[in-house]
Write a structure and sequence with these properties.
The protein is an all-alpha fold. The chain has 3 helices and no strands.
C-alpha cells in the first residue's frame, strides 16, 4: 500500500517536474526591457498617456501588460527557486 505522501505516483518522471528556466529568462528580459523603455522615454509616455479622451486605453493597457509580464516572471522565478504554495 502506497503512502498518501508519495509524490511519484502518476508522474512519468518520478515526481520531479521540469523547472521553467527558459520562461523565467524570457519574461525577465521582457519585463526589464519594458521598464527600461518606459523610464528612458518618460516624457513621451507622460505626454501620450495624459491626452485625455479615448487615450485612457493606453495607461490601462500598459498596466495590464506590465502586470501580466511581471507576474509571469515572478511566478516562474519562484518555481525555479523551489518555492511553492502550501497545499
Amino acid at each position: 500500500m502506497a503512502s498518501p505522501n508519495n509524490t511519484s505516483q502518476g508522474s512519468p518522471n518520478g515526481g520531479k517536474t521540469k523547472k521553467p528556466y527558459l520562461q523565467t529568462i524570457v519574461f525577465g528580459a521582457i519585463s526589464l526591457s519594458a521598464y527600461l523603455y518606459v523610464f528612458k522615454n518618460e516624457q513621451w509616455v507622460t505626454d501620450t498617456f495624459t491626452m485625455g479622451g479615448w487615450h485612457w486605453v493606453y495607461p490601462i493597457g500598459t498596466a495590464l501588460a506590465f502586470s501580466f509580464v511581471h507576474g509571469a516572471f515572478g511566478s516562474n522565478l519562484l518555481t525555479v527557486l523551489g518555492l511553492e504554495a502550501k497545499k
